[in-house]
Each structure stands twice: as structure tokens, then as C-alpha cells.
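Figure 2 data, in text form.
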Amino acid sequence: TTKHSLRLEALQIDTRLCKGIKIKASAHVQNIGNIDYGYIDHNTIIGTTGKGLRLEALSLEAEGLPAGKKLYIQMHFANDGWGRAVAGGDAGSFGLGKEVQAIKIWIA
């Protein structure tokens, strides 16, 4: 949703495209704090729906990646643009109240 001034409140990752890879997720949500989702599947909703609360940070851990490959996360923030790509771990603004507008997730 870059260039549209719309915040990201929730996302789903289609894990069916990641054969043999298990992903653990946690997120920081406005007014709630950190939420641990454990191992996710394609039905897992990360964040909240219908509450008007922004997703502020995302942490993903991938197990079973091919040798030498890493899972990357990059977030786009209101007023700041694209942040740096992070290999695994945490991406976003824990407790800083920054509005995430888009997320890129890839394996390389």
C-alpha cells in the first residue's frame, strides 16, 4: 500500500509455497504489544482484523531453508519509505509507533 497512506494491520503468508520450510512468527501490534504465533500455516493471520490497530513489527524464523539461504524481511514505513532488509529476526519498529504500509518477504 505504498503511496496510498494506508497502514498494514494484518497479513497472511502462503506457507504452501515453501515446501519443507517451517516458519515461526511473532508481531508487535499497536496497543497490544508482542504476539507469538508459533509455527504458522497459510491460515494464520498475523496482526489483527477489525480493530484498527497497526502492525508495527514482524519477526520470522525459518527452519529447513536450503544451505546458504536466508529469509529476508523489508518494511515500508509512512513518512520514512523502505527500511533496510533484515535477514531473519526482527523487522519494524518495536514501540516507536511507526506505521507499516507494506512488507516484502523473500528467500535468497
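Caption note: Strands lie at 10-11, 22-29, 33-39, 46-47, 55-63, 71-77, 81-82, 86-87, 89-92, 100-107.
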